[in-house]
């Protein structure tokens, strides 16, 4: 048993996923970003869900709190979560990595910043396919790093990075490609063939890849981690994964970085200690418990998200057939083109919902918005009812 795991949870009767029956007051009382930022609106924006986490995660955290596991993260905790990660990615994603390649970090963005520090030298730029999870743009710009935005091509609802567009980005001084799979916000899951094509272009340009797998547990089909698709890809990639989205523990601060290149491992030896110490022991305990939890819980979670997607699809298509701008296979997002209902994202406030605005996600996406499906079906239905009023605003 890995260090730090909780023997008392092992033999318990573990119930499957439940969406919870929290009132809006209870959700607001969590004082998390999602429910407290726009108190007058129904929130479907930031990537938190409203669901309770898995029973094993709750139990492990309660146990850790009871024994006041509040000190700095120890090597045995790091080893424990590394082994739990190795097993989970092998069993669920078919990706074989070694435990010494898995590093504890506070969050996925810390891995992105490590990749920026490690891979970019004077003047080289980050390549960010757009639309994108907007902090990639914000962090690079704040650090004075140039960004080459590459608009994804919408192929019948699958938003994909094409090799010619990627080559253009390298021609413009790009060096580090951000590859998010499943993709936030469009929900595309890349095929192995697409990833091999991307790897050829990256390799030909001596580029590097930051592979963001944070949404990998949330998928209708198995994602193939980019670094696992070929040795070439493994050598030019830093990967990051976390349990924080599916098991809803983003505030607990623990993620895993996977270094599949020996010189990156040496770089970690020089730079990694400080980053690793910023992870929280409660986050590490939660991640370990999540990776080791009953797979039925995650299956139940994914089934609930799929059913929410069907509910959303029906309502959104009734509002306007072109409103759904993507056909996601992963993540708990829907990507919406509000121009189809002649609406502007600022009008979302008038109908009482908070979605994430496309204007933050790259040039050209000002009329788009991202809807978070991670809510009880009744809440989602209320959000969809309010979205239906958008088309009435301008008619
Ligand atoms: C694609 C993607 N990457 C990174 C993050 C940030 O993760 P973390 O909180 O671990 O930095 C998110 C959060 O929603 C995300 O969706």
TrEMBL record:
It is an enzyme of class 4 (lyase). It comes from the Bacteria. SUPFAM superfamilies: PLP-dependent transferases. CDD domains: AAT_like. Keywords: Aminotransferase, Lyase, Pyridoxal phosphate, Transferase. Pfam families: Aminotran_1_2. Gene3D superfamilies: Aspartate Aminotransferase, domain 1, Type I PLP-dependent aspartate aminotransferase-like (Major domain). Its EC number is 4.4.1.13. Residues 100-387 form the Aminotransferase class I/classII large domain. Its cofactor is pyridoxal 5'-phosphate. The keyword Lyase applies. One of its GO terms (molecular function) is cysteine-S-conjugate beta-lyase activity. Belongs to the class-II pyridoxal-phosphate-dependent aminotransferase family. MalY/PatB cystathionine beta-lyase subfamily. This is cysteine-S-conjugate beta-lyase.
